[in-house]
Amino acid sequence: MTALGFCDVQVSYNGIEAVQSFNDLLHSGEWLCLIGPNGAGKSSVLRAAAGLVPYSGSIAIDQKEIPATSARWRAQHIAYVPQSPLIPLDMNVFDYVLLGRNPYVRHFSWETKHDKEVVSEVLDRLDLATFARRSLGTLSGGEVQRLVIARALAQEAPVLLLDEPTSALDIGHQQQALELVDKLRHEQGLTVVSAMHDLTLAGMYADRLVLMHQGARVAEGSAKEVLQPNILSEFYGVSARVHHEDDGTVVVIPQRMSTR
Amino acid sequence: MTSTTSLDTGRNRYWFVFGGVLLLVAMIVGTMIGPAGPTWWRIPLEFLNRLPFIRIDSGVSEQDWNIVWLIRTPRVVLAAIVGSMLSISGASYQGVFRNPLVDPYLLGVAAGAGLGATLVFAFQRGATENWIVDPLPLAAFIGALVAVLVTYVVGTAFGTTQSTTTLILAGVAVTSLATSIQAFILQRNTDVVRQVYSWILGRLSSATWGDVRLVLPYVLLSTGVLFMHRRLLDVLRVGDDEASALGINVRRVRLIVVLAATLGTSAVVAVSGLIGFVGIIVPHAVRLLAGASYRKVLPLSVLLGAAFLVFADIPSRVLANPAETPIGVVTAFFGAPFFLYLLRTRNTST
């Protein structure tokens, strides 16, 4: 079944085209990763789907087009984790995750007992329950990342958008965060679209890679198909070796330009 | 989880009780102290005596009672109203602009009201004495609203994504413009400089029950609207983008909150002049005491803001007796050091 569909999605800023005619269909539980150099339009695709930038064309969830006017409906169906979330340091963990319930709370109303139960459950599932009363300022980078994902989960949306989810994390926490997302999408059938710079990690976790360049899709497929030295050299301008592990992992290693 | 939640609500109730008691004490003390009138301890007794079914011989003469009821009590009540309005406006502005050092005068309320008042003083204050409606608060009120309206229209017309920055800068520009016009008028009417100056520093000395009745509807409306937005102000703390992705129409919420806060602030400025720092000190004191969630900050700002200004009005009455010390001087005297303290200790977001 199609969970998320992009049909002729175009984004432009002040007349400059950032994304030209993006089309894609994702089935439920699929993980699509957008790769490409800076300014390729990866984030713009995510931001369009999250309703943060105006776009033309349509984006549909379960074949139902997202209404342009209802931010609440969109937030009930799409959860968005930005590249660098703004963390109010003196807010506590429980209240922060509770913000994820906003799409279900009427404008001038309050969170119900059910909303609080959902938050408690999410905190338990991500091993954050012991932090519930701690303020965000006391958490480490890895804990904050897990917390932001927790808030997205509290939205109970079938689609999760991740913009550079691991760029600020060390290698261990990168792995932990991506493993968490992977586990959640298998358990709950979450459909995931992420933008990532680390090509090796992108290839390891995503089902499908889409390489973007200057707003257009230029290559797509499995890690093995997309992560090829000539493709990377053409669009990233990088000279890189690509190494294939026995378990199918594709490792991208940049090479030094100068020869010593 | 449920146990920690109930513990938290228990602590909240404790703070609200504290705020309520403090306000009550402030108002009782406020009515007891003043340069003229009956002995201080007799006054609470006389208040009790005036309640139905209670008879106490307090020994307060009718003339003394008039001093308490017609001069001192409206002043205390007005101080409470002004203090609570400035505090809740300050807290709300800090919320929508995500800037801890913002005060309710940010978008031009102060300069606009100042200009309006200056115009009235310059065009023969004496001639308006017999008017049915005193034009001074009206002109200040309109001046404040017009200034913020200009700021908002200019700020949102030119602002794209960084709308709060443009809005704040537009506020700076409008403030400078209004202040320069005011300076020009004062230059040509040097005889009213003293009156304008005393108005700018803020005063509650001439408060009447009429003033209370004048501002109360605006303050109630404004406070009610702001109260309804306190959960949304918490959501805005994660930034415009994330709040939008969580299903909030950020521009609309910001517009409504700014309008409501401006309406209330303009109304109280019109009757009390410019009383500085209340809108910064009180919300921050509340945050330091009870935490930063707007669900607590707004209602507690109302209680503590009212109590703070009632207390601050006491030294302004008795310090330079028989003259009045402008209350803006008193609040700035306590407020400026506190502001510097905040600058030093809080470099985080609200």
Features:
heterodimer; A: alpha/beta; Rossmann fold; 6-stranded mixed sheet; 4-stranded antiparallel sheet; 9 helices; 12 strands; 33% helix; B: 350 residues; mainly alpha; 0% strand; disordered N terminus
Question: What secondary-structure arrangement, pairings included, does this model have?
Answer:
The complex is a heterodimer of chains A (about 260) and B (about 350).
Chain A: E1 2-13, E2 16-27, E3 31-35, H1 42-49, E4 56-61, E5 64-65, H2 71-77, E6 78-81, H3 93-98, H4 113-125, H5 141-154, E7 159-163, H6 171-188, E8 191-195, H7 199-205, E9 208-213, E10 216-221, H8 223-226, H9 229-236, E11 240-244, E12 250-254
Helix pairs in contact in A: 4-5, 5-6
Chain B: H1 2-32, H2 42-50, H3 62-97, H4 109-122, H5 135-158, H6 163-188, H7 193-200, H8 209-228, H9 230-236, H10 240-245, H11 250-272, H12 278-290, H13 294-318, H14 327-345
Provide a descriptive summary of the structure in words.
The complex is a heterodimer of chains A (260) and B (350). Chain A contains nine helices and twelve strands. Chain A is an alpha/beta fold. Chain A has one domain: 3-Layer(aba) Sandwich (Rossmann fold). In chain A, the strands form three sheets. Chain A has a six-stranded mixed β-sheet, sandwiched between helices. A four-stranded antiparallel β-sheet of chain A has the order 2-1-4-5, covered by helices on one side. In chain A, helix 4 crosses helix 5 and helix 5 runs parallel beside helix 6. The model of chain A has no long low-confidence stretch (mean pLDDT 91). Chain B is mainly α. Chain B has a single domain, classed as ABC transporter involved in vitamin B12 uptake, BtuC, CATH 1.10.3470.10. Chain B is 75% helix and 0% strand. In chain B, helix 3 packs antiparallel against helix 11, helix 3 packs across helix 13 and helix 12 packs across helix 13. Chain B is globular. The two termini of chain B are 26 Å apart. The N terminus of chain B is likely disordered. At the A-B interface, helix 2, strand 6, helix 3 and helix 4 of A face helix 1, helix 9 and helix 10 of B.
